[in-house]
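Re-running Carboxylesterase to confirm reproducibility after the cluster update. Everything else is unchanged from the original entry.
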Amino acid sequence: MSGNLLPYVEVNPNTTPDACVIWLHGLGDSGNGFAPIVPELKLPADHAIRFIFPHAPERPVTINAGMRMRAWYDIKSLDFNNRADVEGVTDSAARVEALIDAEHKKGIPYERIVLAGFSQGGVIALHLSTRFEHKLAGVLALSTYMSEPEKLAAEASAVNKDTAIMMAHGEQDEVVPMFLGHTAFKTLTENGFNATWSTYTMQHNVCLNELNDISAWLKSVLA
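Result of re-run:
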């Protein structure tokens, strides 16, 4: 792994990988947080999917009294329209794009790569995938929202407009209210993206029913 790339946790299949899922964690977490989810997906024993769980850079987070923690971008305000630090979003999207390109250079086709993200990680996944110049297998956006949705129409790439985007959200989410996720879903569909929307009886987390649906979705987009 190049020293210029984000560090990450990896979970490799028993066979040579022919597909990859890059899964981005939420604020204050790390790649270690979601890595244990792989066996819970109950994928076939002979699956050839490599999972990468990158660690976001450490940075001061304004709403947390400037404490340094792993974050894909700063959150300077809880105001819904200005929650995401745009410069940080752009920087992190570029870092994740470098990870995607590195997997491609290892022999994984772009169209066999899924970009997934939870909360802050989902913001990066949506921002990058809608502007990415190569076709992806799918996008998984969990309990998340969109940075600068008003700019999507002008900045969107058409390459992934028919790529499956699975959006999922907790109905009792108090960290990222469900309406923010649904607004992102509506923005995607209004701009011609192939997004679906599901809700679950949960808070700002992942539940068993959601994991089962994610497993079925992964099997579909990486069939």
